[in-house]
Amino acid sequence: MKNNNAYFLKSCTKKNQFPVFPYPEFAFMGRSNVGKSSLLNTILGQKDLVKTGSKPGVTKTINFFIVNDNKSFVDLPGFGYAKLPSDMRKKFMPMIKEYAGARDNLKLVFLLIDIRRIPGDFEKEIINYLASLKIPTAITLTKSDKLSNNEIANSIKKIEAALEISRDSIFITSAKDKKGKKELLSLIEEFSKR
Fold first, then answer.
1. Domain containing 43: what range?
2. Res 54: pLDDT
């Protein structure tokens, strides 16, 4: 998939605000500070399309982007960041679940996990919820440029064990050096046809 054109469509916090269109949709979710916005910008080939910030928790709404006039990419709020106010943290998970349950055209969710940390209850809850909806999930490890090849291999083993998944469900990425971009774009192309 080559990205020729991508633009921001709208931000939403409730189901009745979600746009309606026939495009296949791809959602990106993960903890705050996982590098979601940076990875989205890398995939879309546009430096500042998705807002990034030095402080975690920049994304507080569900943000819809239209890509090539035939796909929708969705940037979901980061969940589980300790320094966000607790009332905001409590809102994010129901907002994410409401989104996933409402989108008939949602083809695939990219669940982003920082390769340097072991996923916990938030990630397991999301994976189980998406499985209950029969929505495929691609475990997308970010920030691989911060580790050596040996450290990457060790982290993958720990993440496989923590989530009880196989290696072929895992994608290694880095927004900094564009690692994994080609694989994610191929996956998007494949799932667009399903």
1. 6-192
2. 45
**Are the C-beta atoms of 192 and 107 separated by less than 8 Å?**
yes
Q: Is residue 1 part of a domain?
A: no
At residue 3, the pLDDT reads 67
Question: Which helix (H) or strand (E) is 110 found in, with range?
Answer: strand 106-114
CA 121, distance to chain mean position in Å, is 17
Domain count, the chain: 1
At 14, the amino acid letter reads K
Phi and psi at residue 108, in whole multiples of 5°?
A: -160, 140
Between the CA atoms of 81, 94, 28 and 115, what dihedral angle is there, to the nearest 10 degrees? 40
CATH number of the domain within which 151 lies: 3.40.50.300
**If DSSP codes are grouped into helix, strand and coil, which group holds residue 174?**
strand
Q: Are 50 and 37 in contact, with CB atoms under 8 Å apart?
A: yes
What distance in Å separates the CA atoms of residue 149 and residue 106, rounded to the nearest whole number?
A: 33
Question: Which portions of the chain are predicted below pLDDT 70?
Answer: 1, 3-4, 52-59, 79-91
